[in-house]
Amino acid sequence: MANISEEAANRIPLDFSSVKSLPDSHAWPHPGCSDGLSGSGSIPVVDLMDPNAMEAIGLACESWGAFQLNNHGIPLSLIEQVEVQATRLFTLPAHRKFKAQRSPGSITGYGPALISPFFPKSMWHEGFTIIGSPSDHAKRIWPYDHARFCEIMENYQKQMKKLAEEVTRMILKLVGVRDEEKEWVGSSESSGALQLNWYPPCPEPERAMGLAPHTDTSLLTILYQAQTSGLEILKQGEGWVPVRPHPGALVVHAGDLLHVMSNARFPSVLHRVTVNRTRQRYSFAYFYGPPQHCVISPPAFQNSVPRFRALTVKEYMDIKANNPDLALSSITIASTH
Ligand SMILES: C=C1C[C@]23C[C@@]1(O)CC[C@H]2[C@@]12CCC[C@@](C)(C(=O)O1)[C@H]2[C@@H]3C(=O)O
Ligand SMILES: O=C(O)CCC(=O)C(=O)O
Ligand SMILES: [Fe+2]
């Protein structure tokens, strides 16, 4: 198979605004019931200002791989500005959005999720991926009117980075990562990316899939989901559990890099997105983690057997980009007994 982002760019895009019934290309055989179970619990809520926030985050990551975060310090007004700009982008006519299409082999720009080629059917979703300034792509859509979009997206990433650093410091302390191995946290080296997601209303939501089940590659993801439900996480023994939007709260997901660095104490969370007949849905995901050249490995504790081999972030991302389902198992160290 060609490189994952080349494959994603080669898919024929759908103009959702002109579709009145679900095309076969987007009809999934059993989108809503991969295990027959449907969970009833809900992910923990953590108040970042609580003196026990770190412990609460540890417990949430161990048992759910996700939590809702309150008192996070991101101004609601900034989130609203991102929402205004995302609406401005995704409600454009299809031919305008296609001008900013992700080019083959690259990550940033407009298009389907990068994981799309690994699924037989297309998702009811459009995305726009940003790393740093989105100006190259924004200029193609709005030649004379891109400055505000860029300013807001850059400001949002800046604020998200600060929050991600704070949460990462707590998590890596719990994991026992040595200071010299986390110098990248808070430096300009760390990697961050912002994904704007849009799920249009869907004529047959029961047969469609917003975003197919996946784990995020990052160390952690900070997600804002606007008012509409749709996000579900897989909880062992319970099935798919909806993550309802809490006004003002952000959802934090453990990603694969944390899975490795915590020796699977904080497993990355499998999640997916369902769609709605009448309501569109927006979400903004900020992915945070160590720089590409950083070597990651489980912490070296006495008596603890490392379950994963050491490798660079870049090596892991390449493995994941070629085989998302088997990436973690392919770096698992075989047990000797
Ligand atoms: C930083 C990144 C995470 C992501 C790959 C990327 O390089 C940029 C896009 C991200 C995204 C967003 C939608 C879901 C996802 C699985 C995908 O297809 O593209 C994630 C990627 C990921 O976590 O691997
Ligand atoms: O839309 C959502 O709630 C989830 C988005 C997501 O999983 C992602 O961008 O990786
Ligand atoms: Fe995700």
From TrEMBL:
> Which domain of life does this protein belong to?
Eukaryota
Keyword NAD: yes or no? no
Q: What keywords are assigned to this protein?
A: Coiled coil, Dioxygenase, Iron, Metal-binding, Oxidoreductase
Please provide the Gene Ontology terms (biological process) for this protein. Answer: gibberellin biosynthetic process
EC nos = 1.14.11.15
Q: Name one GO molecular function term.
A: gibberellin 3-beta-dioxygenase activity
Iron as a keyword?
Answer: yes
One Pfam match, given by its short name, reads: DIOX_N
Q: Which residues form the Fe2OG dioxygenase domain?
A: 189-290
Please name the Gene3D superfamilies in this protein's record.
B-lactam Antibiotic, Isopenicillin N Synthase, Chain
> Which cofactor(s) are needed, names only?
L-ascorbate
Residue ranges annotated as coiled coil are 146-173
Hey, which pathway is this one from? Hormone biosynthesis; Plant hormone biosynthesis; gibberellin biosynthesis
- Family per similarity comment: Belongs to the iron/ascorbate-dependent oxidoreductase family. GA3OX subfamily.
Name the chain's protein: gibberellin 3beta-dioxygenase
- Species in which this protein is naturally found: Senna tora
